[in-house]
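BUG: 3D viewer hangs when loading the predicted structure for this chain

Environment: internal workstation, default settings.
Expected: structure renders.
Actual: progress bar stalls at 90%.

Input used:
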Amino acid sequence: MNKAMRNPYIYALFVIPALVLFVLFFIYPLINAVYYSLTNWNGVSDHLKFWGFKNYTKALTDDTFWNAVKNNGYFILFSCFIQVPIIVICSLMIANVKRFKSLYKTAVFMPTVMSTAVIGILWGFIYNYDVGLFNKILGFFGVEAVDWLGDPKFAMLSILITNGWQWTGFYIIMVLAAILSIPKDLDEAAEIDGATGYQRAMKITMPLIMPVVSVVIMLSIAGAMKAADIIIVMTKGGPAGSTDVMATYMIKYAITNFKYGYGNAISVIIFVFTMILTVLYQVLIARRSERIEY
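Structure tokens produced before the viewer hung:
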């Protein structure tokens, strides 16, 4: 076995299949997208004209597109500053319960396994102006009903809450697994030394689960950049484009109008924006880690 593992061809046997799949299903489609983004291809005809960067110029000078970018930013901010703290708090609470821990884990994970279409319809009823749960609660306290999905002031917030409800359980399970993998000796020793529950959570648990929390934040950013399905189900980008994100903008203004060259340009822009955000986040985290180690 030692002789075999020193043979580089053995490693190639394991790497090549994954590399072939990576090239076929990521690199090749990405190159195709870049190529077609420089044309006026309509997605049907074999005849296309090279346009250069006209599609990119059109997107980057379109106010509607930048409104979609802003909405993607709302997804990122909501995920990082509201959803992630809730995930960590819920994970700490579930980790410290003595009974029915499996029940709580199953309950928070249930929305993740449900179809986005089902969740969108379910929350559509909750937000309904006439019979929705939220408006019934507001009416009980004498507050006027709100058109949650029809008013541009509330539509985006409603989408964010629904999307957060769907995916929070998935990330809670990840963080909870990290918490439960921490040796109990550390927590018990701190408790013997007189540390409170809050001090143990802040000084022991949080530093040890930060790598997993970092992954959760990265996944949240990536998910925020490709968000589309929940919006299509609930508002279709309305009212008046107030809930459009880059992916729904691409579908609405490019794909459905047979402007596939333009659609490919937008997909490339989404990819570039996502890479920039991911690299910036990694650099900031790496620098912080270096300062802590120093």
